[in-house]
Design brief:
four-stranded antiparallel beta sheet, 11 strands, globular, mainly beta
């Protein structure tokens, strides 16, 4: 059974940082493309960043230069380092298996976790 468990969310002030983690199990993580997506209240699911099995990375324009996606295949864990956070980054963040991780869309996403809440507010 595929399991994706996100953690690391919380309340942070504008300009602050958070590091999200996603613990994966039940599939071949090392061979899988992965992505982070987010959903703000009243809005649709928004792709944020993707990473291939070899480590190639992609970012939405809105987070380029501020967010960094990475993976540790030995630990079956996906990360999202978020710096210079803005109020508009507030959302529930999900990790997902993504067969189209470079498409900058959510169409390739299959299984995803339950999400972790990120709130950016002073």
């Amino acid at each position: 059974e595929v399991q994706l468990v996100e953690s690391g969310g919380g309340l942070v002030q504008p300009g602050g940082s958070l590091r999200l983690s996603c613990a994966a199990s039940g599939f071949d993580f090392a061979k899988s493309g992965m992505s982070w997506a987010r959903q703000a209240p009243g809005k649709g699911l928004e792709w944020v960043s993707g990473i291939g099995s070899s480590g190639t990375t992609f970012y939405a324009d809105s987070v380029t230069g501020r967010f960094t996606i990475s993976r540790d295949n030995a630990r079956n864990t996906l990360y999202l380092q978020m710096d210079s956070l803005k109020s508009e980054d507030s959302a529930v963040y999900f990790c997902a298996i993504d067969f189209l991780y470079g498409s900058r869309t959510t169409v390739g996403m299959t299984s995803r976790g339950q999400g972790t809440q990120v709130t950016v507010s002073s």
